[in-house]
């Protein structure tokens, strides 16, 4: 007798279809958003429920061939693969555990397909190499650049061909009175594309696991306690009260210099550090000038950095001809204008130090 809760739980088909719908929505969401994380968790929950129902129904048996599997049940062969891909996307706190779970799911997915003969010859060889090299599996095992390039191009073309075939079969499956063979070929094409991507995921996971293992083996940088840290500036200033540039730290070799009665506990030497510290108390925070402006100009003049004279500026100006009335008037007007300018602009009038 089933309870009301069991009767309300979705069946295998409903859970699988819900997961596929959510997977399509996931591609349109921002991976940093909360809706992305919620949708991803919903997909994982539905796929895990599918795995549980598949085991309860004993949907796939090791004693049967692929021809014995009902057409509608073929699609459920990809449950392990889809769940592994979702766990890869879920960056949980225990990333190492999530990746290892994904590897186990992908291995189970490929093993089941190999049992049913659904791996082609090249994929079967990759599967056998993965079983031999679980910890170091790479799709391209050769170090020859030309061969690596050839393998990558071949796999890219295979995936492109599978996508085109899958797109065509999906279009055909939407027609009225579709036959069973078309639906079966559609599910088999989805399985083939999943196989191609599963090996790529295994390659990626192996590399990430290698990085994570090296990070765990690397010794963590040790930092002294806060009370032992010393923040020192380039000029020797320290925030420690017993630092080397403080009175308490002068000549310090470890432990106090004097005991409670004033008796020296260790040898020390009197230096002029106190005088040096006193001189540095009221020092300026910037570099002071080492010469006056006049000294600087004189030095520049000695080095030839100042050009004087301005051509014929120092040459004596010709006096205006007293018999030429126009020249006399012009010289008088020029002198008068200069006197008016000097009177209106006394010396230092332009340097008001921003006081208006």
From TrEMBL:
<feature type="compositionally biased region" description="Basic and acidic residues">
    <location>
        <begin position="227"/>
        <end position="241"/>
    </location>
</feature>
<dbReference type="GO" id="GO:0005829">
    <property type="term" value="C:cytosol"/>
</dbReference>
<dbReference type="Pfam" id="PF04177">
    <property type="entry name" value="TAP42"/>
</dbReference>
<protein>
    <recommendedName>
        <fullName>TAP42-like protein</fullName>
    </recommendedName>
</protein>
<feature type="region of interest" description="Disordered">
    <location>
        <begin position="217"/>
        <end position="241"/>
    </location>
</feature>
<dbReference type="GO" id="GO:0009966">
    <property type="term" value="P:regulation of signal transduction"/>
</dbReference>
<dbReference type="GO" id="GO:0035303">
    <property type="term" value="P:regulation of dephosphorylation"/>
</dbReference>
<dbReference type="InterPro" id="IPR007304">
    <property type="entry name" value="TAP46-like"/>
</dbReference>
<dbReference type="InterPro" id="IPR038511">
    <property type="entry name" value="TAP42/TAP46-like_sf"/>
</dbReference>
<dbReference type="GO" id="GO:0051721">
    <property type="term" value="F:protein phosphatase 2A binding"/>
</dbReference>
């Amino acid at each position: 007798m089933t309870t009301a809760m069991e009767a309300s739980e979705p069946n295998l088909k409903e859970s699988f279809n819900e997961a596929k719908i959510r997977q399509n929505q996931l591609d349109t969401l921002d991976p940093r958003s909360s809706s992305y994380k919620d949708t991803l968790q919903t997909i994982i929950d539905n796929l895990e429920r599918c795995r549980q129902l598949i085991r309860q129904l004993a949907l796939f048996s090791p004693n049967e061939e692929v021809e014995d599997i009902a057409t509608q049940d073929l699609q459920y062969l990809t449950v392990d693969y889809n769940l592994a891909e979702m766990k890869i996307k879920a960056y949980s706190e225990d990333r190492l555990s999530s990746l290892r779970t994904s590897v186990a799911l992908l291995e189970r997915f490929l093993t089941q397909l190999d049992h049913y003969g659904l791996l082609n010859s090249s994929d079967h060889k990759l599967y056998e190499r993965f079983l031999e090299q679980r910890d170091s599996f790479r799709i391209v095992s050769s170090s020859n650049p030309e061969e690596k390039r050839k393998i990558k191009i071949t796999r890219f073309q295979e995936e492109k061909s599978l996508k085109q075939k899958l797109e065509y079969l999906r279009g055909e499956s939407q027609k009225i009175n579709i036959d069973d063979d078309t639906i079966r070929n559609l599910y088999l094409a989805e399985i083939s594309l999943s196989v191609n991507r599963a090996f790529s995921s295994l390659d990626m996971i192996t590399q990430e696991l290698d990085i994570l293992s090296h990070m765990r083996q690397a010794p963590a940088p040790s930092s002294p306690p806060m009370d032992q840290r010393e923040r020192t500036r380039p000029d020797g200033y320290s925030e420690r009260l017993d630092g080397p540039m403080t009175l308490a730290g002068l000549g310090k070799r470890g432990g106090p210099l004097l005991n409670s009665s004033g008796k020296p506990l260790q040898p020390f030497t009197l230096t002029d550090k106190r005088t040096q510290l006193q001189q540095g108390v009221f020092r300026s925070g910037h570099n002071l000038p080492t010469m006056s402006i006049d000294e600087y100009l004189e030095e520049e003049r000695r080095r030839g950095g100042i050009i004087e004279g301005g051509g014929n500026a120092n040459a004596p100006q010709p006096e205006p001809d007293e018999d030429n009335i126009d020249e006399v008037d012009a010289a008088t007007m020029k002198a008068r204008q200069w006197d008016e300018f000097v009177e209106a602009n006394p010396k230092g009038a332009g340097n008001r130090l921003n006081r208006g």
